[in-house]
Amino acid sequence: MNVFITGGCGFIGSHLAERLLARGDRVLVLDDLSTGRIDNIAHLIGMPRFDYRIGSALDLPLVTELVDRCDVTVHLAAAVGVRLIVERPVHTIETNVRATETVLAAAAKKQKLVVVASTSEVYGKSTQIPFREDQDLQLGPTSHSRWAYACSKALDEWLALAYAAEKDVPVIVVRFFNTVGPRQTGRYGMVLPNFAQQALANAPITVYGSGEQARCFGHVNDAVEALLRLIEKKEALREVFNIGSTEEISILGLAERVREAAGSTSEIRRIPYSEAYAAGFEDMMRRVPDVSKLERVTGFRPRTPLSQIIADVVTDQRSRMEGGSAGDWRLPASARSA
Ligand code: UDP
What we know:
The protein has 12 helices and 13 strands. It is α/β, with parallel strands linked by helices. It has a 7-stranded parallel beta sheet, with helices on both faces. Strands 7-10 form a two-stranded parallel sheet. The relative contact order is 0.13. The site of uridine-5'-diphosphate has 13 residues, from helix 6 and strand 8.
């Protein structure tokens, strides 16, 4: 299979590329290196079935050429990370919506299969746990930039399903829940790499808000497995799937587990949301996927235990810190001055 990955220098994209190459597929990556890093694919460059372009997923002629060369497009290019969304809302909305439009328009020319990556953020403030793909979305007001991300990804989903219905483009929509693993950077605020780096540096571990908010962290290898299985299934076409773990942990609990795994003496410090993000920031208390649809169609559900996930991330961050390539985590001002 020839697979085109937009955002292939990103965290999930680079793992997907690696896995496809390992099983004998050809991979073509496009990335503008805005949040992706060439380091993520450095070990793939020069491999016989691997090719990459540095360019924009908004560039229709380029995207059309690359979509045409492949059997499947996995569209992962997006503005990601809560921090980036709060800091650069215009960039987030424009990137997410225009890139998906561009990819779908290119795929429509020859009815090529497109997997559109969405996010659990689209469930918004829903408290209907676990989240099912067909439940109502519950977004906050337009005055809060966080919801712009959710809304931009929801629009991506609508666009994908509209291209399927109206132009017969084969599409699959996947909603990734908190996906973590080696190579994820803490630069954009993601909690687990941040905690691992803070713990390894014996610096304060910054828990935002009460720490009672909970998440389910899924291993990137499981996310890639789920994605690859969906691509093979006819029943997946024109459907939306949650991809994530169902093992839930509070953020305070996560901080403690990471500290222990890292053998760290870090203090765990609570930071108000207003300081971590911006005044009026709204967080979600719980976010658990219902993965029965994924399991029914593919026979697979993410199962890597959290202990294994934390161990993998701590090991990865340790080797990056020793190699001098980490240190991209953010410590709010109050934690720095103490
Ligand atoms: N968080 C935290 N400390 C950090 C980064 C994040 O306490 O250094 C919290 C964040 O407020 C949220 C949770 O961890 O409640 C998960 O954050 P992340 O940005 O990784 O993903 P989200 O689930 O918000 O998309």
